[in-house]
């Protein structure tokens, strides 16, 4: 992908005025402040409107605050871990090591990338900065998508928690692992056929990818690591704040009873579970325990659909993915993943 991006010019440099690096650093601090202030504000408002304070908000507003904060608390450790791993890949891992150990055949290469999550057990939130780092390091867009879709499902923590929740009953665990692997590789293959993968990325991230390898020459690795941490945090934290607020708002407005009433129908139960996964935006490492109480009401295929679709597409993830991919790319990705996840659910309902 690096070679595909060589002929594109940095918009800051292209503008030809001011000091691009200084303006870029100022912009990073500004967005980092937006993310930190927004997240802090949620906690402060929640604290001063606690029931004991006498300034309590209406029930729905309290639910909104609680749900938004829960998304942040659940996601933040993995986001930070993902940024740290991204820095490790970009700064500390030798340039050609990752590319050298992966197979050359595209199909085998994407299959191997699907299992990177086994060694980097980060949930979907942390995989976004890590995938950005892998693209900067030389992954194609389609390969990074394969990683993004497979890693939250095919990693030891998710597999263990799913087994703890469901065991081997009704093929839910097997359906989740196999479904996640198949969908990730199909998506990777589909987007690898795109004639201009560069156009799938936002202009800002594409500009970051084409920064030459010797950029920052003279800086120590620790200085480069600090700069990368500032840059990735300024991108990811505001997106996490927006995603958490959106997820909290929709969860507090949509009655879950409407979704539960659809649980016994083979088709509607699958659609209801996709909507629930999209709205709830729960982390893949714990989503099996969240959905466990629904197992007695919903069919096994719809549970698998929830466990496959949720780690890939939800409100919070779309906000995070928007830092890297264009709106058109995300619409296409969402549509194809929804169709494939529904198909996996129907197959499990038929077989189980």
Automatic annotation (TrEMBL):
Q: Does the keyword Metal-binding apply?
A: no
Bilayer topology term = Multi-pass membrane protein
Superkingdom as given in the UniProt entry: Bacteria
Enumerate the residue ranges of region (Disordered): 1-23
Q: Where are the transmembrane segments?
A: 29-49, 69-93, 113-135, 147-166, 173-191, 235-254, 266-282, 288-309, 330-351
The cross-references to InterPro entries, in alphabetical order and at most eight, read: DUF318, UPF0718
Q: Does the keyword Iron apply?
A: no
**Name of the featured protein:** Uncharacterized membrane protein YraQ (UPF0718 family)
List UniProt keywords, sorted A-Z. Answer: Cell membrane, Membrane, Transmembrane, Transmembrane helix
The record's subcellular location field reads: Cell membrane
Please classify the protein's predominant subcellular localization into one broad category.
membrane
Q: Can you list the GO cellular component terms from the UniProt entry?
A: plasma membrane
Instruction: Family membership, please give it.
Output: Belongs to the UPF0718 family.
């Amino acid at each position: 992908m690096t070679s595909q991006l060589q002929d594109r010019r940095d918009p800051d440099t292209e503008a030809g005025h001011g000091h691009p690096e200084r303006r870029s650093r100022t912009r990073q601090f500004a967005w980092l402040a937006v993310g930190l202030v927004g997240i802090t504000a949620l906690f402060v408002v929640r604290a001063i409107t606690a029931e004991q304070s006498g300034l309590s908000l209406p029930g729905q507003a309290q639910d909104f605050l609680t749900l938004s904060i829960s998304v942040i608390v659940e996601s933040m450790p993995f986001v930070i871990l993902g940024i740290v791993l991204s820095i490790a890949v970009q700064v500390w891992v030798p340039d050609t090591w990752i590319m050298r150990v992966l197979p050359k055949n595209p199909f085998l290469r994407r299959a191997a990338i699907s299992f990177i999550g086994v060694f980097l057990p980060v949930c979907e939130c942390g995989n976004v900065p890590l995938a950005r780092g892998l693209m900067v390091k030389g992954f194609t867009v389609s390969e990074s998508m394969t990683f993004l879709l497979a890693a939250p499902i095919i990693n030891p923590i998710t597999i263990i928690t799913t087994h703890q929740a469901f065991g081997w009953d009704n093929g839910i665990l097997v359906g989740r692992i196999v479904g996640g692997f198949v969908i990730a590789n199909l998506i990777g293959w589909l987007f690898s056929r795109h004639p201009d993968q560069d156009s799938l990325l936002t202009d800002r991230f594409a500009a970051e990818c084409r920064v030459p390898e010797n950029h920052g020459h003279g800086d120590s690795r620790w200085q480069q690591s600090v700069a990368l941490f500032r840059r990735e945090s300024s991108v990811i934290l505001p997106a996490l704040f927006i995603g958490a607020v959106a997820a909290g708002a929709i969860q507090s407005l949509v009655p879950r009873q409407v979704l539960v009433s659809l649980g016994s129908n083979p088709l509607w139960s699958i659609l209801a579970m996709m909507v629930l996964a999209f709205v709830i935006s729960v982390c893949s490492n714990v989503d099996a325990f969240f959905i466990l109480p629904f197992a007695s009401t919903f069919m096994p295929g719809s549970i698998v659909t929830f466990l496959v679709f949720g780690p890939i597409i939800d409100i919070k993830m779309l906000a995070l993915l928007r830092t890297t991919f264009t709106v058109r790319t995300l619409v296409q990705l969402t549509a194809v993943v929804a169709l494939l996840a529904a198909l996996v659910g129907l197959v499990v309902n038929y077989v189980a």
